[in-house]
Specification:
The mean pLDDT is about 90. The chain has eleven helices and 13 strands. The protein is of the alpha/beta class. It has a single domain, classed as TIM Barrel, CATH 3.20.20. The strands form four sheets. It has a six-stranded parallel sheet. The protein has a three-stranded mixed sheet with strand order 2-5-8. A two-stranded parallel sheet has the order 1-6. Helices cover about 40% and strands about 15% of the residues. Helix 1 (about 20-30) runs antiparallel to helix 2 (about 35-55) and helix 6 packs parallel to helix 8 (about 210-225).
């Protein structure tokens, strides 16, 4: 394979299980037992180890494993100007489990300024050598899906939407200027459209599912419209990933025309690892030959390895709707969307990525 730009035939979503040394350091920092400088030193050391491990097993898109984050989205969103992180009374309700009580809220006008994630990217860039660095940030839609709003600051929610778009346009340019050419937007807000149950919840909140979907589309397309031509921006659409549990279920059908035919991203990372994700049929709405579809057929939630022939058969099934040369393979989600991580061992995640690489080389050559 001679690919230089992602998504790659064998790719991954971004996060990796946190090493025990890092977990211990984060706990000590939270308990005021070590300084931030001491925590950062551990983070730096573990990220360098992770980069080398990814190279060793042949990963093509190098990430920092999100090792500096507690959550895949709250850390980034809370560091935007006009936002802050705080502790909520309750966590998010996942399947049979409640998450930690992290939250974000609007405290001023939204903007992108001297964001710490720029330095996070530069660190990976400086240690990845000639490898392609993929950097992951939450979709702009996640600010509206998760943030506590403030009517005194934004009496009109459309103004909040427009400021968020402008902030993300600045962010994309800032990451590009720092050398990022492969940026991934992670987004769980689309999952609220995937089942009658979740669409009913939207209605209960006073939202029209069709209008809500059109807003999600608008925010994405406006946020990325000024991206440089040599920058790849993909999106991972997720149904939730916390300690090997999930937040929602349902196929892509309701939103298929918009997701596959109306988003101007360069690639889509999609969950297809079990029956909760529905069939491949919604892929029939893919209407661009330059859109890469990354099939998340390998679960990141459990350590048992999938059967290679079964995965190949599912890839072949997907070609009924999308040509093989537009398809790629990855896990359905990250291995550690939050610092707690999924219920599997580090050796399992590397075995999963090795399996994906082997399958991709046999399918695509």
């Amino acid at each position: 394979m001679t690919e230089l730009v992602g998504p790659f035939r064998y790719d991954h979503v971004g996060s990796f299980l946190r090493p025990q040394k890092l977990k211990e350091a984060r706990t000590k920092f939270q308990n005021n037992e070590i300084t931030y400088a001491e925590l950062k030193q551990v983070e730096d050391e573990e990220i360098i180890r992770l980069i080398e491990k990814q190279k060793e097993i042949g990963v093509l898109s190098i990430t920092d494993g999100e090792f500096r984050r507690s959550w895949w989205h709250f850390d980034f969103l809370g560091a935007l100007e006009g936002m802050e992180n705080y502790e909520k009374d309750h966590g998010l309700q996942f399947h049979k489990v409640e998450t930690s009580k992290k939250g974000i809220r609007v405290v001023g006008k939204i903007d992108f300024g001297n964001h710490p994630f720029l330095d996070h990217f530069k660190f990976v860039r400086d240690h990845a050598g000639d490898s392609t660095v993929k950097f992951t940030i939450p979709s702009p839609n996640m600010l509206h899906a998760r943030a506590d709003k403030n009517a005194d600051i934004y009496p009109n929610e459309n103004d909040l939407i427009e400021d968020t778009i402008k902030a993300y346009q600045k962010a994309i340019q800032a990451f590009y200027d720092a050398g990022c050419r492969y940026l991934q937007l992670d987004d769980t807000s689309w999952a609220s459209l995937f089942s009658e149950e979740t669409r009913s919840k939207l209605v209960d909140e006073g939202k029209n599912p069709q209008e809500y979907m059109e807003t999600l589309q608008y925010v994405i397309n406006e946020s990325i419209k000024n991206k440089p031509s040599d920058m790849t921006i993909t999106m991972h659409i997720c149904r939730g990933n916390y300690k090997s549990t999930f937040h929602s279920s349902g196929g892509y059908d309701f939103a298929a025309k918009v997701i596959f035919g109306g988003l101007n991203v360069d690639g889509l990372f999609l969950e297809f690892d079990d029956e909760r994700s529905g069939s491949f049929e919604p892929l029939k709405y893919v209407n661009r030959s330059d859109l890469k579809i990354v099939l998340g057929l390998i679960t990141s939630k459990f350590g048992e390895l999938e059967d290679k022939d079964s995965i190949k058969a599912r890839i072949q099934e997907a070609t009924n709707f999308v040509p093989l040369n537009q398809l790629c393979l990855s896990p359905q989600c990250g291995f550690s969307s939050t610092e707690e991580g999924n219920i599997l061992e580090e050796e399992n995640q590397w075995a999963k990525l090795t399996l994906i690489k082997e399958i991709a080389e046999e399918v695509w050559g």
